[in-house]
Automatic annotation (TrEMBL):
An example Gene Ontology CC term for this record: cytosolic large ribosomal subunit
UniProt similarity note: Belongs to the universal ribosomal protein uL14 family.
Keyword terms of this UniProt record: Ribonucleoprotein, Ribosomal protein, RNA-binding, rRNA-binding
Gene that specifies this protein: rplN
Protein name per Swiss-Prot or TrEMBL: Large ribosomal subunit protein uL14
UniProt xrefs under Pfam families: Ribosomal_L14
Subunit-level organization: Part of the 50S ribosomal subunit. Forms a cluster with proteins L3 and L19. In the 70S ribosome, L14 and L19 interact and together make contacts with the 16S rRNA in bridges B5 and B8.
Length: 123
């Protein structure tokens, strides 16, 4: 359950480290984001000498969430942290060249095959 003002980890090598969600995309009344949902975030912490800077407003897709996510087979998946990957606003392709940590297979089912191909581990 990622909602506006949630603090998330940016799990790619674009330069951002920590971000704050301020809009969940989808419907005008959509309150919570789950795995594979698009969000708008503001970068709170960033690495020096990288293309992403502090206070940048970017689109991202949720790849990990602390709240348990129910799969179609009835099992649940849960991660240790809330994490996102920054994506292009138009094509929804990842800006970075690497994705750190595991991701769930629901991302490739929701149309983010390029993020799934960059990930080291799919759970």
């Amino acid at each position: 359950m990622i909602q506006p003002r949630s603090i998330v980890k940016i799990a790619d090598n674009s330069g951002g480290k920590i971000g704050r969600i301020f809009k969940v995309l989808g419907s005008s009344r959509k309150r919570y984001a789950q795995l594979g949902d698009l969000v708008v975030l503001s970068v709170q912490k960033a690495e020096p000498r990288k293309p992403i800077k502090k206070k940048d407003v970017l689109w991202a897709v949720v790849i990990r969430q602390r709240n348990a996510y129910r799969r179609r087979d009835g099992s649940y998946i849960r991660f240790d942290e809330n994490a996102v990957v920054i994506v292009d606003k138009v094509k929804h392709e990842p800006i970075a060249g690497r994705v750190f940590g595991p991701i769930s297979r629901e991302l490739s089912e929701k149309g983010f095959q390029s993020i799934a191909s960059l990930a080291a581990e799919i759970v």
